[in-house]
Amino acid sequence: IFNLESWRKMSRIKTDIVTDIRLDSDKIIELKNNNEQFLIAKGRRKTYHILTYGCQMNEHDSEKISGMLTSIGYVETEDEKKADLVIFNTCLIRENAELKVFGKLGEVKGLKRKNPNLLVAVCGCMMQREEIREKVQKKFSFVDIIFGTNTIHELPMLIYNVEINKRKSVDIVDNTELIYEDMPKMRKFKHKALVNITYGCNNFCTYCVVPYVRGREKSRDPEDIIQEIKLLAEDGCKEVTLLGQNVNSYGNNLESEFTFAQLLYAVNEIEGIERIRFMTSHPKDLTEDLIKAIKECDKVCNHLHLPVQAGSNDVLKRMNRKYTKEHYLNLVEKLKEAVPDIAVTTDIIVGFPGETEEDFSETIEMVEKVEYDSAFTFLYSVREGTKAALMEDQVPDEVKHERFNRLLDVLYPIVLKKNQDCIGKVFPVLVETAEDDELTGRTEHFKLVHFKGSKDLIGEIVNVKVTDVKTFHMKGEIKKYGDTPLLKG
Ligand code: SAH
Ligand code: SF4
Ligand code: F3S
Question: Which residues line ligand 2 at a C-beta cut-off of 6 Å?
């Protein structure tokens, strides 16, 4: 149910509650009533389809969009051709993310021609950049609604504006100190949930657009986070992933001192939650306290995603990562000492401006030393507006590709070996999806496992013995289920 009163808008600097003049409950009720009329007249509810690009931030924003649309009487459809409203939640982290969106917008143009009543909305990180917004408005003039990452809560008003006032609507806020709490959310999974802990980023890694599109870093109040997770647990959720561009700097702008490590201890106490994950850790802010928290909190999964980006100090410096390879290796050593079975995964960029053969060989060395359980590897992509875009010595595409392939040649055998180490061992696995009698889930180390079982087990944690492995997944068989086993021995 749409409840305007529950949407608190909070200022980070002071904790005054600010009411938003643009949200008008009478208009939203009118829109909702219209949607009920539509149901009576057509015998079906209005439908929406969301295309989500990019990271878990965007995935979670899409859950909020779904929640809002549901609260005003829409239902989701898997088939975009049958939708009354198509929403693009966009990403521009690399050029190909952007190209995908433009390609798909071209396809939707045809749908709009066939069905003029179709509403098309574009939101997400791409819309936070003026020049891209203008390109969309010009090249895809059929788009009805544009909103940004700071104006998701305005969507019902934007729909109102199009449907009732017959006006195209754009609503963007560049940067904001405000955080919306208690927005309705429609979770994609019952047993696992994404929970924002910080928004934005202050790090300005020189290759990255995120600080320009998501604004400055803001932390949610711990009470709000804990309250949300308690409600999730009451609703049957077993696994939470705490989200932030740099979770390790959580709390920096809070009035009272509260660190990420403290937050982990607090979440660990919540009854019903069995697994805690978090994304992403920045090596420069990974504290001893956090390592201790990972070790001591039984629900915190023994998995750390710790993006290294590059192995050469020279490149790291020009990336503005603010750590050295020695610091990184030292962190990994301390982690493995504290939590011997921890799985470490990473992000790597190949072909950053000025990367020499020597620099690249240090990235390879890093992969060999750390022995990552898995890694996301990216070709450096020039992003307009970032410092690296202006750097000289851009690496030619063929060199980038050639290095990229060499990196995979080193990485994949290591990943496979790490998986082979699991053969014969039994792991608790949270069952996530089922296709016929083939179940899929993840171990606490974030490894994907396929095994046979009944789909009633979705959302349960079962013990699975690993029998066979590939680079990207493992196969296994259920050993025993019923009781929920402990995550850590
Ligand atoms: N805040 C997180 C994730 C940011 S985006 C972090 O700091 O780790 C996810 C990954 O995309 C980054 O870790 C980086 O490896 C990659 N990435 C970001 N900008 C990129 C660019 N311009 N070209 C290629 N890869 C990029
Ligand atoms: Fe981008 Fe760096 Fe911020 Fe991550 S920490 S979002 S890579 S600027
Ligand atoms: Fe993309 Fe925005 Fe995430 S640019 S990676 S969706 S924060």
Answer: 201, 203-205, 208, 210-211, 245-246, 282
Q: Measured over all CA atoms, what is the biggest interatomic distance in the chain, rounded to whole angstroms?
A: 69
- Answer for the pair 335, 346: CB distance below 8 angstroms, yes or no: no
d(C-alpha 110, C-alpha 93), whole Å: 27
Q: Which ligand is nearest to the CA of 128?
A: 3
Q: CA 16, CA 9: separation in Å to the nearest integer?
A: 9
CA distances from 200 to 146, 153, 219, 294 (A): 20, 17, 9, 24
Mind listing the pLDDT tens digit for each residue in 283-321? 999 999 999 999 999 999 999 999 999 999 999 999 999
Please work out whether the CB of residue 377 comes within 6 Å of at least one atom of ligand 1.
Answer: no
256 DSSP 8-state letter: S
pLDDT tens sequence across 135-167: 999 999 999 999 999 889 889 989 998 998 888
- E-strand stretches of 125-247: 145-147, 169-171, 178-181, 192-196, 198-199, 218-219, 239-243
Residue 79 CA to chain centroid, in angstroms? 23
Point out the ligand nearest to the CA of residue 203.
2
Q: Is the CB of 91 under 6 A from ligand 1?
A: no
> For residues 42 and 256, what is the distance between their CA atoms, to the nearest angstrom?
54
Cα–chain center distance at 280: 9
Token pair, residue 202, equals 């202050």
**Separation between Cα atoms, residue 208 and residue 189, nearest integer Å:** 30
